[in-house]
Amino acid sequence: MQFINRSIAIIKPKQPFINWVNSTDPDSACKISLEQARSDPTCILLPEFDTPKGARSYIERIYDDVWLWELRAWWTDERVYPKNRPFEKFCEWFDIELGSEVFDWLDKPIEKEEV
């Protein structure tokens, strides 16, 4: 096991995001539930922070990119994306959980892939 010099943010959707996802294709009989969407959250490695305040400030700087990532994961037509996306609204649509300690339990190199 090795300590990694990163913090982590776990981004979990809230009901307003699920409402948006389910409204993108009104003809679809398949709707996603909050429980389904939250069962596989987005996890983001952040720079190492000593305090939750520092990590939250970093999230405030990158939140719109995170938000776009979440929107694109569910629907690719950007014309239906919310136009007004302040950080306060991001916090209404997503829970942010922060962790200051990240460990690698595997004895294998981490593979990275550009997205």
What do you see in this structure?
- The mean pLDDT is 93.
- It is globular and about 50 Å long.
- The protein has four helices and five strands, in the order ββααβααββ.
- With 115 residues, the chain is α+β, with helices and mostly antiparallel strands.
- The protein is 38% helix and 23% strand.
- The relative contact order is 0.27.
- The protein has one domain.
- The protein has a three-stranded antiparallel beta sheet.
Give the helices and strands, then pairings.
Blueprint: E1 2-4, E2 6-13, H1 15-23, H2 34-38, E3 42-47, H3 52-74, H4 87-93, E4 94-99, E5 102-104
Antiparallel strand pairs: 1-5, 2-3, 2-4
What brief labels describe this structure?
115 residues; alpha+beta; three-stranded antiparallel beta sheet; two-stranded antiparallel ribbon; globular
